[in-house]
Design brief:
Maltoporin, Chain A, 25-stranded mixed β-sheet, mainly beta, globular
């Protein structure tokens, strides 16, 4: 039985469940007879989603609770075209929107900017457990003339619930799953001075087994333990002044293993080595856990002062994060019982200030404006101790430590402005500019030797233009264009003197892009249905691209050795795509919604670092690790080979689809019963075109929820199943077997060494999450 048949049967099952609930008579109420209006702040003011001339996906706190979304990256299940990952370390966050990917390890500014309560913030602060969230908005396309940092692909804003001033209240939310997951979060809201001053205290405790991957060589189970607290203060002494201050403290401990699969399972020519491991087994082979401890603090303040139809706003933030992590060096368990690897201590901090002046009443009855200034300073010094295995005649002799210190800070200053001309009641013409001054300082010190010192200064002006027209009150058409800018980073990870070729792939150029979008938003059937479509094209100059790991000629105190690194490239590229959203209120208590996103990207025949042992200019697809002799022959004096490619700039699927539905019926005069479903579907995807093992088949993930709730929203009890069909698909595989790198001392003097790799019989392989069942209970009172 194929997966499409399975999903079809699951949909039939959902319909059967819904039919069973209809046994009770329908209630007479108009509360849910039409689609609910969604209010967003994409343009720095509250307005209906259907009137905003750009693509915005809004995920409310109510939706997060309904679908039991507890991790930030799980919002990709309801937002197609969005890919989020926190990596096996928990802090290596990555995001992709509209086909443009970003990896935090590049040190570049993200393609997607992140905001918490309107303040620019590092993405790692959001990739934690979600709790007491008001709304998440995903803004697609170039951003920067209205908020924070410039970004070429979009922005994600997270707004926490603020204190209410008129009534006390709160809630408690408890979830338990059959995989050992435990999540308790809640909040208490206390008005101090009626309608003037209020406080809210929210907290969370989350304990789970992370990705469920265990090791055959270590009895310790994987774990993720988090806790956090968030006090908020809201003060409105007059109708003209509003102050909101939020402080958040989060701590997380993580222990995990990298999952593997036997090479013999995917390559019939490979020998069968026991134990045979299938990707669906969710096990690893490392003898030591990958561990991480994160401690985060964020203080964010918002001030609004209204006068004469204008609003002066200030947003300031201070965020600090300490990461302590250990990554095992013996990935293939070549030396059982010996623990060594990389010890990392990183302490990052960021300070931001933004001041804006905007109109609340239209000037001359026709114009709105926003002008402002933004300042950011970010630094993340890190101390890394890299431990290497030294061997002789294949036997481990000792572990050598190499201290590596990375020091750097970047500063950004910008001024911006945006104006909108309301031509009558139906037409809007808007445009904005931002001028950016960017400064970056960095230094890399290895074993007390400064390998490089970088100081750079850049400035750039970006813009956006938008035209929209309401042909009817329920049909809006629009077109917009905009540009974006990202300073080129210096990639850290090559600890040898740089050849011109190596420098080309680690010292990347500034990126610029230009985007075009046309679309429409429509509501019909007396506001029971909506249909929105956007088509876009984006051109990049010097896109900051980072590919898969390739081999290069490294140099250490013992001479030339083979090594590998995920090099970057500054490439010209283009993206074409479409976003579609539809919703239908079938009847009172029964709604269906769907969203579709497609993005096709291509590099425009530019050079990237590659393995090219046969010197044909095409990246090799071999999974064999090159020898030093092969590398020297294929790289020459450049130390790394380069190939001209026209590959995609992202390994994410070209398209994805989400479907949601809920059917609710009264059980009694005060209690409703409901069934809801969420389906996320992904097509076949050839991720790395030069990795013969990395092809992903099409698959769908179906979540079902069955529950009862009080009519007044005071309590809700739900049973849920995630990946209810137990879909089992491999999502990624490494290009070659897992190896343990060592330095082999050479006879007869044993004073020099050459690098070599000890191969295992397994490849890295990550799969879809296993089926999970759980129960959720929520109780709320007062203002909630």
């Amino acid at each position: 039985m194929n997966k499409l048949t399975t999903l079809a049967l699951a949909s039939v099952s959902l319909s059967v469940l819904a039919t069973a609930v209809t046994a009770q008579p329908a209630a007479t109420s108009s509360d849910d007879s039409t689609l609910s209006e969604v209010v967003v702040t994409a343009r720095r003011r509250e307005e209906s989603l259907q009137t905003v001339p750009q693509t915005v996906n809004a995920v409310s706190g109510n939706t997060l609770q309904k679908l039991n979304i507890q991790r930030f990256e799980d919002i990709q299940a309801v937002v197609p075209g969005l890919t989020l990952s926190s990596g096996s370390s928990g802090y290596s966050t990555a995001a992709t929107v509209r086909g443009a990917s970003f990896q935090q390890e590049t040190g570049a500014q993200p393609t997607v900017a992140f905001y918490l309560n309107d303040a620019t913030i590092n993405s790692a602060y959001l990739f934690e457990s979600l709790f007491d969230v008001g709304q998440i908005e995903v803004l697609r396309g170039p951003q920067g003339t209205l908020r924070g940092e410039a970004s070429p692909s979009g922005s994600i804003t997270v707004t926490t619930r603020r204190p209410t001033l008129g009534e006390g209240g709160g809630y408690a939310d408890v979830t338990a799953t059959d995989h050992g997951g435990r999540n308790l979060n809640g909040a208490v809201n206390v008005p101090i001075i009626a309608d003037k001053l209020g406080v809210r205290l929210a907290a969370i405790i989350d304990d789970n087994r992370y990705d469920q991957v265990r090791s055959i060589n270590n009895p310790l189970r994987p774990y993720s333990k988090s806790w956090g607290v968030r006090p908020s203060i809201r003060w409105e002494p007059t109708d003209a002044v509003a102050v909101n201050v939020m402080y958040q403290h989060m701590e997380r401990k993580l222990g995990a293993y990298d999952p593997v699969e036997s090479l013999s399972q995917i390559d019939p020519s490979a020998p069968v080595v026991n134990p045979v491991i299938h990707a669906s087994d969710s096990v690893g082979i490392a003898g030591a856990e990958r561990t991480t401890r994160q401690v985060q603090d964020a203080l964010i303040g918002n001030l609004d002062v209204r006068f004469s139809g204008q609003k002066l706003s200030y947003v300031g933030s201070l965020s600090e994060q300490t990461i302590t992590a250990f990554t095992p060096g013996d990935a293939g368990n070549a030396f059982p019982g010996v623990v060594y690897g990389q010890d990392l201590v990183s302490k990052g901090s960021q300070v931001t200030h933004e001041l804006r002046l905007a109109s609340e009443d239209r000037l001359f009855g026709q114009f709105d404006y926003t002008v402002g200034a933004f300042v950011s300073r970010f630094g993340a010094p890190s101390d890394l101790t890299n431990q290497s295995a030294i061997t002789a005649f294949g036997n481990l002799v000792f572990i050598a430590d190499t201290p590596i210190f990375n020091r750097g800070v970047n500063k950004e200053r910008s001024i911006f402005g945006n104006a909108t001309w309301h031509v009558g009641d139906a037409t809007e013409l808007s445009g904005g500019l931002r001028h950016i001054w960017y400064e970056d300082h960095g230094e890399l010190i290895v074993s007390s030797n400064s390998l490089f010192q970088e100081r750079s200064k850049d400035q750039k002006t970006i813009y956006n233009l938008s035209l929209s027209h309401k042909f009817t009150p329920d049909f809006l058409a629009y077109a917009n264009t905009g540009t974006a800018f990202r300073p080129g980073p210096f990639l850290i990870g090559v600890f040898r003197p740089l050849t011109p070729t190596l420098r080309q792939f680690v010292d990347l150029q500034n990126e610029t892009s230009k985007s075009y979008e046309v679309g429409f938003k429509s509501t019909f059937l007396d506001k029971r249905a909506l249909f929105n479509v956007a088509i876009y094209h984006q051109d990049f100059n010097n896109f900051i691209y980072r590919g898969s790991a390739v081999s290069y000629v490294d140099l250490n105190q013992n001479g030339l050795v083979p090594s590998s690194f995920n090099f970057g490239s500054s490439v010209d590229a283009k993206i074409d795509g479409v976003d579609v959203e539809a919703a239908f209120q079938v009847m009172q208590g029964f709604n269906v919604s769907a969203a579709f996103s497609y993005a096709k990207s291509k590099i425009k025949n530019d050079p990237v670092a590659c393995n090219d042992l046969d010197l044909n200019g095409v990246p090799d697809s071999t999974a064999v690790t090159p020898t030093l002799a092969q590398l020297l022959a294929s790289t020459g004096s450049g130390a790394v080979a380069q190939c001209i490619v026209h590959d995609p700039i992202s390994f994410s699927p070209k398209w994805s689809l989400t479907l949601q539905s809920e059917y609710a019926r009264p059980i009694s005069s005060s209690v409703d019963g409901y069934v809801r479903g969420l389906l996320s579907y992904y097509p076949k995807n050839r991720q790395d075109p030069y990795n013969p093992y990395d092809n992903v088949d099409n698959y769908g993930l179906l979540n079902l929820y069955l529950g009862v709730r009080s009519r007044d929203g005071a309590w809700e009890l739900a049973l849920f199943g995630k990946n209810i069909t137990n879909t089992d698909k491999v999502l990624s595989r490494s290009n070659g077997v897992i190896t343990t790198g060592v330095q082999e001392l050479q006879p007869p003097t044993f004073t020099s060494a050459i690098g070599r790799s000890i191969p295992s019989s397994y490849v890295s392989a990550r799969s879809t999450p296993p089926r999970e069942f759980g129960v959720n209970l929520r109780y709320a009172f007062g203002s909630r």
